[in-house]
Amino acid sequence: MEAFLSSTLGVAITEIGDKTQLLALFLAARFAQKNAIVAGIFVATLLNHLVSASLGVWLAQFVSPEMVKWIVGGSFIAVGLWLLLPDKDDNPDSKWLKYGAFGATVVLFFLAEIGDKTQIATVLLAAKYQALFMVVAGSVLGLMLANVPVVYLGEMLMKKIPAKAVRIAACVLFCVLGLVTLAGRGIALG
């Protein structure tokens, strides 16, 4: 349950103000089919985070528990500090928009998640907890919790949520996770 809750909270907070959240806002402004956008976000995130978490679990099998502890703990701190940098507002490539609300969302969201903070967080959480299903379920839920309101409520929410304060809170959360991981005696791999 800890893997699920940590993944949900970590990804939800990390996603606020992220480029994929801005992408969700763009898609919601472009397409009237909000349910299709939400479904596209879910499918893209599920596929991307399933691959990411599988990679994290697989990598942890080849590294000693002590080494996983240092890699994951240090990486959590690095991701936390990375969160202090605001994302650039990359304009989605309009060639994907011809596929409609669902198709464009799946493709653009999947591509935007590659190398994204939430994808890296999912790899790290899976390596730490070795609980593929719980990490994927939590990370997908966290991403959906952060993006579904943006699709439906859009600009109103973006004006009321101070992105800088959220980035600082997410930084603190990931740095604390990193320090807690480093203070531990290792991660059980069995």
Automatic annotation (TrEMBL):
GO molecular function: metal ion transmembrane transporter activity
Assigned GO CC terms: membrane
Major localization listed first in the record, in broad terms: membrane
Transmembrane annotation, as ranges: 36-61, 67-84, 96-112, 132-153, 165-188
Keywords, sorted A to Z: Membrane, Transmembrane, Transmembrane helix
Domain of life: Bacteria
Bilayer topology term: Multi-pass membrane protein
Localization annotation: Membrane
InterPro entries referenced in this protein's UniProt entry, alphabetically: GDT1-like (IPR001727)
Family recorded in the similarity comment: Belongs to the GDT1 family.
Protein name: GDT1 family protein
Lineage: Bacteria, Pseudomonadati, Pseudomonadota, Betaproteobacteria, Neisseriales
